[in-house]
Amino acid sequence: MDENVAGGAHEQPRGENARERAGIPGQVVLVLQGGGALGAYQAGVYQALHDAGIEPEWVIGTSIGAINGAILAGNPPETRLARLDAFWSRVAATGGATGGWLPALDDWWRRASIFMQGIPAFFTPSPLAWLGLHAPLGREHAAFYSTQPLRETLHSLVDFDYLNTCAMRLTVGAVHVAQARMRYFTNRDAPLAVEHVLASAAFPPGFPSVQLEGESYWDGGIYSNTPLEAVLDDRPRRSSVIFAVQLWPASGREPESILETLVRQRDIQYSSRARSHLERQRQIHRLRHVIRELEQYIPDDVRESGAVKDLLAWGCGTTMQVIELDAPSFGDDDLHKDIDFSPSGIERRRAAGYDDTRRMLARAPWREATDPMEGIAVYREEQGEQSRE
């Protein structure tokens, strides 16, 4: 692993002192999209925060983001990075047909092997799938693969007793299969188990649904792949610096081939309208600030009435500073980039996440003045370019 990504050389004192030096106001939140092998970018983002001595107080994830998040929340700060490294080392797909002589053929061979054999530490083919698409396999087996290996991997890398002490808050998103309703499970409200993480990563029809409270749940990414609303809708609200790590580019060039069309279609689908959701949240948060400002114009005797107090409770003065980190597209990305578990693919995405986050930490946009009536400021790091909205 690259020296700049592996850690150690850039270690800084951890905790409140590091946050004070960085001038970070409020809690630090890490929001992690789903995207399979693309999630290596998230590992690089956390590595950069870790090296700067900044540990998130809250991680929100879906799919691979839930897996990365569980590993972080399920370990104390001093072992988080090692456990994250262990996961990505275990799921790396090595080997090839030509031993490196023909890289394109080796890549094809690795992906074909994943389709046929799975990834030993992640998922394996389900023998029941050979009974055919119409065979009634039952709701817990209606999939091409079994995620029993992932269950075992998570048990070996995540201390769920520690996770449920809430030293770090964890929220994972899953969608109710029968009702098409997104639900967020958080260890603040009730203990989380390995099933909650498996449910958040149960992407159909590859992976089977997972039973929670007697109901079937699938990967939350098929409903909303950017779980940003979980922090913006949280009560009670707290001022936050939110690192929103997005694996599927919302922006891209117009395709000129069928293959490019399929790739762009998936990017749009799994970016999950993140920016439109954020605009809606900005409007709602602006109204909260307006309500807070109106309070000063209400006479004292009216303000003290119960009905007015209830209305004023909808106001707030919190600030939400959203740091968008968009994973880059590489020239050889194709329709199956989310199963590119090759060691080189994992490493380059992780390195990109590390570099993008270090640049954003150096910029420290949360130090900039914000409009007191807005409440939400958005800063973007997208393929090396920085912007503010």
List key phrases describing it.
single chain; alpha/beta; ten-stranded mixed β-sheet; disordered N terminus
Brief write-up:
The protein is an alpha/beta fold and 389 residues long. The chain has 15 helices and twelve strands. The chain starts with a helix and ends with a strand.
Question: What this model shows, in words?
Answer:
The chain is of the alpha/beta class. It is built from 15 helices and 12 strands. The strands form 2 sheets. Strands 1, 2, 5, 6, 7, 8, 9, 10, 11 and 12 form a 10-stranded mixed β-sheet that branches. Strands 3-4 form a two-stranded antiparallel sheet. Strand 5 (169-176) and strand 6 (181-186) form a beta hairpin. The longest helix is centred in the C-terminal third of the chain and has 21 residues, at 274-294. It starts with a helix and ends with a strand. Residues 1-13 have low confidence and may be disordered.
List the SSEs and their pairings:
Blueprint: H1 3-6, H2 16-22, E1 27-32, H3 40-51, E2 58-61, H4 64-73, H5 77-90, H6 103-117, E3 124-125, E4 145-146, H7 148-157, H8 160-163, E5 169-176, E6 181-186, H9 194-200, E7 210-212, E8 215-219, H10 229-232, E9 240-246, H11 258-271, H12 274-294, H13 300-303, H14 306-312, E10 320-326, H15 343-363, E11 376-382, E12 385-388
Parallel strand pairs: 1-2, 1-9, 2-5, 9-10, 10-11
Antiparallel strand pairs: 3-4, 5-6, 5-8, 7-8, 11-12
Structural class: alpha/beta
Uncertain parts? 1-13
What would you report as the Rg, rounded to the nearest angstrom?
A: 22 Å
> What distance separates the N and C termini?
35 Å
Q: In percent terms, what proportion of residues is strand? A: 15-25%
Instruction: Tell me about the largest β-sheet.
Output: 10 strands, mixed
Give the number of DSSP strands: 12
Globular, elongated, flat, extended or rod-shaped: what is the shape?
A: globular
